[in-house]
Amino acid sequence: GVTCVDSMVIYSTNWSYTSQEPISAIAAGDSIGIYSIAESNWPSEYLWSPDYNISDITDRSPLVWNDTTQYYDLIVTDSMGCKVEIGWLVNVLTTSTYDPDQIIDINVASNPNQGDFTLSVSEGIISNLQLYDISGKLISVTKSSSDMIAIEGLDSGTYFYIANVGDKLSVGKILVIK
C-alpha cells in the first residue's frame, strides 16, 4: 500500500460589532460622521450607498450632510471575501438648529419582540410613524390620532422607526426575533 497525505489551512473570519445604534440626527444644513459598527479581524474594504452627500463611499467613517432623512447602506468586505451588510440611519431634524427639546422618547413594548409590539407616548399624539427594514426599505407609514400604535405580523429582523409627536421626533430600533 501507498499512503497519501495532504494538509489544509483553514482561515476563519471573526466579526465584532459595537453596541452603538446606527442612528443619528442632525439639523438641516449640518453634517455628521457615520462609521461601520462591524469589524473583521482581516483588512476590510467599505462601500457605502447611496452616493448622496457623502464624503467618500469607500471610507470606514465618511462625513454625510444629507438634507433629508437618509438610510446609508454599508457593505464591509474583508480580505477573505466575507461580507457583512449593515447601515446607518441619519435623520434630518426640521429646524435649522439642533434643539434637544425637539426629541421625544417613545415606549416600545416589548423590544425585542416576536413580530407584534406597541409604540406609545406619555404625552401627545403619534401623528405619523415610518417603519424601515435593515436595508432602509420603507415597510409602512401609519397615520394616527392616538397616543399608541400597534404593529403586528413583522418577520424576524431589525427595524428602524421615525415617529412624529406634534412638533417633536423620535427615532429608534426594534428587534423582531421569532
Unreliable residue stretches: none
Report how far apart the termini are: 55 Å
Give the overall shape: flat
Q: If strands are numbered along the chain, what order do they take across the biggest sheet?
A: 2-8-7-5
Structural class: mainly beta
Number of strands: 15
Order of helices and strands: EEEEEEEEEEEEEEE
CATH top-level class of the largest domain: Mainly Beta
Number of domains: 2
* Average predicted local confidence, pLDDT: 83
Q: Main beta sheet: strand number and arrangement? A: 4 strands, mixed
Secondary-structure topology with pairs:
Elements: E1 15-17, E2 23-27, E3 32-33, E4 38-40, E5 44-49, E6 63-64, E7 70-78, E8 83-93, E9 107-109, E10 117-120, E11 126-133, E12 138-146, E13 148-151, E14 157-165, E15 168-176
Parallel strand pairs: 2-8
Antiparallel strand pairs: 1-4, 3-6, 5-7, 7-8, 9-10, 10-13, 11-12, 11-14, 14-15
Describe this structure in words.
The chain is mostly beta strands and 178 residues long. It folds into two domains: 15-93, Immunoglobulin-like, CATH 2.60.40; 103-176, Immunoglobulin-like (Sandwich), CATH 2.60.40.10. Helices cover 0% and strands 49% of the residues. It is built from no helices and 15 strands. A hairpin with a 4-residue loop joins β11 (126-133) and β12 (138-146). It is flat and about 80 Å long. The N and C termini lie far apart (55 Å). The relative contact order is 0.18. The mean pLDDT is 83.
